[in-house]
């Protein structure tokens, strides 16, 4: 080894918790963030002595604080990282709070590994938690949220971007909601793979049964219930459709109480604190990039140039190929996110190495922006038990929009840590050709992709992304009568022809019958 130990970033502490206590006893998100921070410090070895050295504390943004969120809990904790630091009894020189995005935890590891390598930080605590299950239960039972607020007298410095994830027209169709948007990718993928409706349903069940099997054996899983492939993908009374072709058991579950934290420092500081070599895990490769921001402007709905690019960058940085990776955690909010990432990274959907170390967001649990912190913690545990092996995880924010990737190993690098500046490859990704878009389509058209959206009482509406004869893209809904909506689910509607007319609020697509 020829690296400078005073500038080599290393992950030394990892902690996570799943809090299934009743609503009277369960922790607030702040309490869970503090608990997992202490677990991470103890996991590294030094415990409180390590927390006392933290100079940078980052708290992952709470779901209730998402941009535009309209809920009574938004902003109840005015400055989350300062409140966490206060409850931990530490005084970091820097503290940050993050904006919304499932890519956040891996983005933070990448960002602060660079800060450590450049001497801008020495010991960094990354922590996050959600307690939506407890909060909602308390409200339903008429219990107070008196302990769910704090105002230390200042606002946090924020990281990430608060750019609106959707256009106004996309919002009008509900596309700013993941359960509406991700099925649009899924049906496009069915077309890419050339599958019938029945073949596709079976594929989804098989794909997610692999995640479910891991969750069923994970004591930290929110839903450790073993389910067959058929039970997962086939609609039933207990497993209704949400956004066709996704049933409830194919959707991420956000109403959980879970927290996870990691601690990063330099190799030199770790040795000074007495951290054993067998606790050290290195970020051997990484990358961060966005796809074209708005869904209506994407080149297609079955690829991600950003994931492909950062996969190549991370592999090059690590000096490894996909065949060298022993463990994966592929971001699994919905099956389309898994398939797109696997396709871009060169991983088979049925890879015998498995696609998750946690069990995935629908079964392990999807704690808002912080799920990937659990991925990192779980990956660190896997790699420590298998010294010298490599693990890869990817993270996805919004609607296949924001992406981060990390490659980890207990094997240290041979040279000083340095990543390629994401800005150096971001612009090329955004320059890809894509269809023109109109908000006011008229005339003959065809379906590019679609979904049929359901409520608890059954079918509600069908959403279409379509193309006019000249290739211009548009958004529309179909008539919402039962016959049309059932027809949309019984036939392969990809490429189906029809007529679109523009309206004041929404456009209308009439499929040819």
Explained architecture:
- This protein is of the alpha+beta class and 513 residues long.
- The chain is 32% helix and 22% strand.
- Strand 16 and strand 17 (508-511) form a beta hairpin.
- Helix 1 (29-44) packs across helix 3, helix 7 crosses helix 12 (335-345) and helix 11 crosses helix 12 (335-345).
- It is globular.
- The N and C termini lie far apart (68 Å).
Question: What shape does the CA trace take?
Answer: globular
* Tally of DSSP helical segments: 15
Number of extended strands = 17
Gap from first CA to last CA: 68 Å
Mean pLDDT: 97
Oligomer: single chain
Classify the beta-strand content into a percent band.
15-25%
Nearest-angstrom radius of gyration? 23 Å
Uncertain spans: none
Strand order of the largest sheet: 1-8-4-2-3-5
Largest sheet: 6 strands, mixed
Question: What class do helices, strands and sheet pairing give?
Answer: alpha+beta
The helix content, as a percent range, equals 25-40%
Helix-strand layout with pairing:
Elements: E1 9-18, H1 29-44, H2 48-51, E2 56-59, H3 80-88, E3 94-98, H4 104-117, E4 124-131, H5 132-140, E5 157-159, H6 168-172, H7 178-193, H8 197-216, H9 229-233, E6 241-243, E7 246-247, E8 257-266, H10 267-273, E9 282-290, H11 305-318, E10 327-329, H12 335-345, H13 371-385, E11 390-397, E12 402-409, H14 423-430, E13 443-455, E14 458-468, E15 473-477, H15 482-490, E16 497-501, E17 508-511
Parallel strand pairs: 2-3, 2-4, 3-5, 10-11
Antiparallel strand pairs: 1-8, 4-8, 6-7, 9-12, 11-12, 13-14, 13-16, 14-15, 16-17
Helix pairs in contact: 1-3, 7-12, 11-12
């Amino acid at each position: 080894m020829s690296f400078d130990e005073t500038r080599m970033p290393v992950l030394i502490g990892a902690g996570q918790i799943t809090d299934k206590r009743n609503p009277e006893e369960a922790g607030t998100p702040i309490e869970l963030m503090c608990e997992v921070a202490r677990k991470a410090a103890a996991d590294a070895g030094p415990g409180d002595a390590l927390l006392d050295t933290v100079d940078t504390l980052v708290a992952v943004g709470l779901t209730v604080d998402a941009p535009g969120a309209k809920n009574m809990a938004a902003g109840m904790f005015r400055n989350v990282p300062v409140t966490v630091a206060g409850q931990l009894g530490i005084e970091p020189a820097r503290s940050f709070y993050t904006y919304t995005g499932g890519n956040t935890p891996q983005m933070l590891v990448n960002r602060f590994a660079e800060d450590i390598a450049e001497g801008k930080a020495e010991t960094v605590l990354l922590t996050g938690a959600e307690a939506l299950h407890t909060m909602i239960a308390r409200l339903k039972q008429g219990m107070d949220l008196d302990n769910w607020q704090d105002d230390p007298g200042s606002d946090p410095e924020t990281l990430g971007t608060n750019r609106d994830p959707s256009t106004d027209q996309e919002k009008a169709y509900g596309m700013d909601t993941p359960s509406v948007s991700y099925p649009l990718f899924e049906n496009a993928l069915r077309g890419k793979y050339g599958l019938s409706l029945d073949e596709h349903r079976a594929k989804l069940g098989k794909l997610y049964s692999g995640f479910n099997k891991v969750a069923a054996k994970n004591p930290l899983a929110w839903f450790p219930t073993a389910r067959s492939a058929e039970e997962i993908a086939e609609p039933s009374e207990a497993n209704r459709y949400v956004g066709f072709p996704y049933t409830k058991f194919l959707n991420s579950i956000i109403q959980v109480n879970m927290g996870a934290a990691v601690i990063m420092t330099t190799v030199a500081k770790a040795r000074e604190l007495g951290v054993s070599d067998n606790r050290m895990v290195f970020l051997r490769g990484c990358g961060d990039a966005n796809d074209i921001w708005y869904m209506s402007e994407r080149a297609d709905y079955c690829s991600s140039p950003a994931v492909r690019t950062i996969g190549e960058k991370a592999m090059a940085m690590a000096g490894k190929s996909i065949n060298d990776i022993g463990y994966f955690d592929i971001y699994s909010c919905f099956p389309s996110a898994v398939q797109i990432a696997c396709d871009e990274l060169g991983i088979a959907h049925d890879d015998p190495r498995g696609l998750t170390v946690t069990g995935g967001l629908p079964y392990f649990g999807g704690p808002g922006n912080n799920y990937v912190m659990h991925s990192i913690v779980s990956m660190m545990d896997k790699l420590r038990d298998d010294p010298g092996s490599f693990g890869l995880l990817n993270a996805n924010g919004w609607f296949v929009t924001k992406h981060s990737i990390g490659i980890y190993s207990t094997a240290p690098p041979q040279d000083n840590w340095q990543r390629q500046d994401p800005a150096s490859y971001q612009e090329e990704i955004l320059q890809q050709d894509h269809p023109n878009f109109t908000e006011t389509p008229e005339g003959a058209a065809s379906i590019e992709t679609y979904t049929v959206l359901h409520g608890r009482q059954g079918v509600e509406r069908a959403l279409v992304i379509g193309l006019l004869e000249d290739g211009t893209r548009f958004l529309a809904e179909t008539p919402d009568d039962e016959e049309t909506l059932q027809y949309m689910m019984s036939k392969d509607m990809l490429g189906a022809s029809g007529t679109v007319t523009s309206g004041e609020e929404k456009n209308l697509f009439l499929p040819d019958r």
